[in-house]
Amino acid sequence: MEDENMIQPRASTRSRIPQAGLREMTSATTNSRSGILPPGSIANKATSVSRTNCALPIPAPRDPLTSIPATRPKATNQQEVKRPGSISRPSAGAPNLHTRGNSYSSSTMSRMGSTTTRSTNPSLSSSISYGNRPASSISRPQSSIGSRRPNGTSISRPATSLDTHAEDAGTILGKRKGMEQLSFSFSHISCPPGSFQKPPANGVMDRVSRPPSTPGFEDQSLGLSQCISRMRVDDSRETSSSRGSGASDPNPLIPWRSQSLSVTPSFSPSKVTRIPSMPPRKTPRRPPVPLFLSKESSVTTFDNKLGAEWDQESREKAIDEFFTSFVARVNQQGQESFGLKETVEVYKSRIAELEKSRDGLNETNITLRVETEGLKNQLNAAEDALKEARRDHEIALGDLERRQRVEMESIQQSSRQDHDVLHQRHQDEIQDLKRKFASEIEDHKAAKVRELGQLTSQSALETQRSTIELQSKERELASLRNEVEGMKAEVDRERKMVHDLRQNLDMASANSVTLESTIRALKARIEFLEGGREEQSQAFERCNQEMMDALVETEATKEKLRREETLRRKLHNQVQELKGNIRVFCRVRPSLHSEPASELTDMQYPDQFDDAKEINILGPEEKSSLGNVSRKNNNFSFDRVFNPSTQNAEVFDEISQLVQSALDGYNVCIFCYGQTGSGKTYTMSSQDGMIPRAVHQIYQTAQGLEEKGWRYTMAGNFVEVYNENLNDLLGNPDELDKKKHEIRHDMQRGKTIITDINTVQLDSPEMVETILQNAAANRSVAATKANERSSRSHSVFILKLTGENHITGERSEGTLNLVDLAGSERLSHSGATGERLKETQNINRSLSSLGDVIAALGQGKDGGHIPYRNSKVCFLLGSLQAFLALTLDQLTYLLQFSLGGNSKTLMFVMVSPLQAHMSETLTSLKFATKVHNTHIGTAKRQARVRDS
Ligand SMILES: Nc1ncnc2c1ncn2[C@@H]1O[C@H](COP(=O)(O)OP(=O)(O)OP(=O)(O)O)[C@@H](O)[C@H]1O
């Protein structure tokens, strides 16, 4: 609280002295922005002080002597003149000056108005009258500036109140110790000559100034000191001149220039000392003025009255007025100076206050330190007490823990006992439940066993009953059979007997006795049979034995059948080999509706109702030079020739044995060769073509073989060789011609693997239709016309057949390849260009190389050169031996294992019936004849190619 009391007043003190005021004071000291001129310019300083004490708005800076506001009437000076003794408050502005001392800093600039008002006196005659001021009035109270001055009474101003400003200004009010040594350097005041003459009533002037009409006097811009300096200069000049030459001043208008201004003590309580000399100012040369006035002197008065030197009254009046105004001005300056001093005093008092507050703060600080020490002691005591309390608390805690531990142990013990009791009870319950459940289970088990026994006995009874029924049925059947047989025999016998009886009718009657005896014998036999049960049971046993023998015989027969199936396979293979491992069928397609009969080629089938192996193609009529008309007959012979009326079913009958070979574990290759539009696709891939029929047959055969222990799985691929590239027709159509597939051969197992290819498991015969549709769809995506694409590429349908006999442990792996070759038309006839030309070249290269390879193979030279490398198709018909050689032909490479060793090949050569295609037809047939004449692995067969 004490501290607060110390601080609060300080705050209020601060608030009373705004920083702005302090700044302005500082700036005033350094002569910047304050409007205070450098030393020697009292007017500005006064202005500054006036600003300090006046709250009026700040006017624009102006010359204090030239600016004469209208608000300041001259009457003020006149009023002051009337009261010459009251110098302390010469004007109405004075109270303002004093009462605003406290707000000095904030009102410094606003004092301009009042100052200006004061300086509105037209002349400096009203500015110096300091000497008239009584000593008491000069000793201005310190509080005259501040509001703290009590009751507005004057308090003696400290002796140093003017020191600072007097020294700072370096001009006026220079001497210390009050007004006694006050000397003025009124450099800023233009003082009219002669205005320093002491009024008669108040003092004596030692010099009499000249009237104000002199030019120098009118120069109001000159300061008083300058005037005085001039006076000195002139004075000395005049003195010297008067001394030297004795001549008088040529200018009688400025006699005051040679005077030095001094105020006698009687004139002012302060001692006016001689004003320090100022630098001389150059003035125009004037005529000398007489030093002393005489009656003869002609002097111009202030009123510009010439010759009024002796008008003492008016001169005194003028001087008096001037002096009054001068005193007022000096007064004003003094007051302003007081203002400044008071400001300084305010700051000094402020400093004192601050020091006081600092002392207070120091005291407070000491008090606080003492208090802090006390508090520290209290804190130490409190800490000690806290430690004590903590110790007590720890002891109490320890006791509590011990107590709780004991309690806990007792609780644990009791709970353990409870737990043991509960556990024991629980165990007892469990034992009871176990016993209960065991007895229930036993009961249940016994019931189930009983039920089982009943069921077993029932089933045994049922079985026995059914066995008995079966036996009775069998017996009935046997007896019925016997009866039937007996009836038959009896009928026969009866017939015979009737016949005999008819023949022996006579004998019957004769032998009636014999018959009767026979009847009796029969009756005796019946009786015997009825009585011979033992014999019947023995007969039943014999029958049973016979049945068991029959079963054994059946098993033996089945085993024999399986052996015969294996033998059949071997024999079938041998038969196929005997037929030739490469067989060639020729098929002529029928003419279409769009093809008129006149455009058809004349073809004959000489043995169509016999072996159906030959075909004659008659050329166009040719006239010889002798006029004979003849037609060229091209006769070809193959393994089978199908005329246009042959249906797919009949064609398939011929190849079904090859399909059977695939099931038996052989690699079979069936391909169609021929020009575009000759019916290859129709034969191979149409709805009732070879592919669907082959798959159907395989299914049927596989099902039939199941009862012989065979289980078959079928997996299908469909690939295309287009421009010597391999494509997957069951894959993504977008990858056609882009994705690369490789053909890899497993030489040891004789298997062909194609990389990255889709394999479809054929679980049903219908799946093959899906495969064919997908392949056709993919081809249609790859080409604008599906037919075009199919014409320009080889397609291969690969069916892998894997069979296992779970009885015999046999295993078979066969492959059926159904190949639809590209159109075989000649390059020269196709007229193809660009991409088509490239395709045709590829196709022809494959096919012609195929012929070469076949021809080479046909020569049958083991180890002889086979031109496999010439074409991929070479692999198609080459032996296993041949396929070991590297080749670029994808197609033949692909079919490598289907053409050699255990492979069987069937080639369809397709023929178009059109005359326009005759040339291509003949070429195809000649090529097929080459193939037909090739024999791989079996006895070479001869075939004829007859030109007649
Ligand atoms: N045996 C036939 N019975 C009825 N029509 C047939 C027979 N053979 C072919 N055709 C028809 O002849 C036309 C051409 O047959 P296909 O498309 O099979 O010839 P292609 O040799 O496969 O031609 P490409 O080489 O262009 O594929 C088809 O319209 C087809 O239906």
UniProtKB/TrEMBL annotation:
Gene3D superfamilies: Kinesin motor domain. Residues 44-53, 151-163, 257-271 have a biased composition (Polar residues). Residues 277-290 have a biased composition (Pro residues). Residues 1-166, 191-291 are annotated as: Disordered. Residues 344-511, 544-581 form a coiled coil. ATP binds at residues 674-681. Keywords: ATP-binding, Coiled coil, Cytoplasm, Cytoskeleton, Microtubule, Motor protein, Nucleotide-binding. Belongs to the TRAFAC class myosin-kinesin ATPase superfamily. Kinesin family. KIN-14 subfamily. This is Kinesin-like protein. It comes from Penicillium capsulatum.
